[in-house]
Amino acid sequence: MPYWLDDLSAYPLVLLSIWLLGSLVLLPQDYQPLTFFRIFAKQLAAKVHPDPNRASSQQLISGSLALALVILPTLGLLAPLYWLSDWPLVLDGLLLYFCLDFVYYRQQSHKVALAVSQQQNSRAKDLLQPLVLRQTQSLSSTGLCKASIEMLWLRTAKQWIGVSFWFLIGGGLAAVAYRLLLLCNQQWNDKHSNFRYFGRPASLLTQWASFPASLITALLLALLTDITAAVRQWRQAAKLNLCLPHLLILGALASALRVNLAGPVIYQQQKNQRQRLGPAPLPQVKDMLGSLKLNRQFQLYSALLVFIFSLLQSLWFIY
Question: Are the C-beta atoms of residues 47 and 69 closer than 8 Å to each other?
Fold first, then answer.
């Protein structure tokens, strides 16, 4: 074996292989290991966070310990498998496959678009509700389109680019740790009044850990569509009531689709005032379909970049 192969990181090739496998072979949600962790996180919160009226410091400590209890034992059980395995890259690929459950959400987004196009708003609301934190029952068809578009791209950034980023940084264990962090943040989201303090540690860590992925997603999306318009949106959106990762993604997306995004949302009957972002036209079904098409193009573009990076990396070690 040539000496340069010993130093060549195979992670980009593993990543491309799992991207392809994940797009062709979708694991049913009932058999997805993350489903177990969702149930475990929900039951754990019920045990260690029975009273949301406790002192905020106690809730912050409970939330931190609960987060550690979900992530650290899991990593502790998985790490010895690398010492026992003769094929650690296969184990890395398997863990990455289980963490990349993004295609399911794109399929559901397509089902929501189909339901809205057939004026089946009740069905669209039922399909969308498990995918988002906001309340969907009061949404109009325009609101359903907007919520579905935002959900698709925020999950693209966090659950696809984010998982892939941390996999390239630290392999399967890093991908698992990041994915479990996202899961805990979704289950204990601090936008819900019951988890205002208990979910704060998971929320802060998620914002930090997902920022590189949000930045990469926003930049690639802007380069793929209209970077000048995206930069204009980012400048105009500097004072919006949005966290920076969401602002970057939605700003690039609004300029790409030329529609209005963000705006007020309702969490647990409480209205959260967000200013609108982007051009005047409100999203319609055609914009949802355009968003889905753009999402596939974005993933192909990302795969091409990873392939080029892997090729350049190989040439570097050869010469």
Answer: no
Specify the residue for token string 């609108």.
276
Span 208-220, average pLDDT = 92
- The residue ranges of every structural domain in the chain are 3-318
Distance CA 214, CA 244 (A): 9
Paired tokens of 180: 């479990």
Per the document, the length of the chain is 319
CA distance 311 to 308: 5
For all residues of the chain together, what is the average pLDDT? Answer: 84
H or E element that contains 277: strand 276-277
In contact, 82 and 88? CB cutoff 8 Å: yes
The Cα-based distances of 251 to 76, 162, 238 in angstroms read 39, 19, 10
Q: Which residues of 68-93 are buried (b: 16+ CB within 10 A; e: fewer)?
A: eebbeebeeeeeeeeeeeeeeeebbb
Phi first, then psi: what are they for 274, rounded to 5°? -120, 135
Beta carbons of 66 and 116 less than 8 angstroms apart: no
Q: State what percent of residues in the chain have pLDDT above 70.
A: 88
- Rg value, the chain, Cα: 20
Tens digits of residue pLDDT in 30-49: 778 888 899 999 999 989 88
pTM of the full predicted structure? 0.90
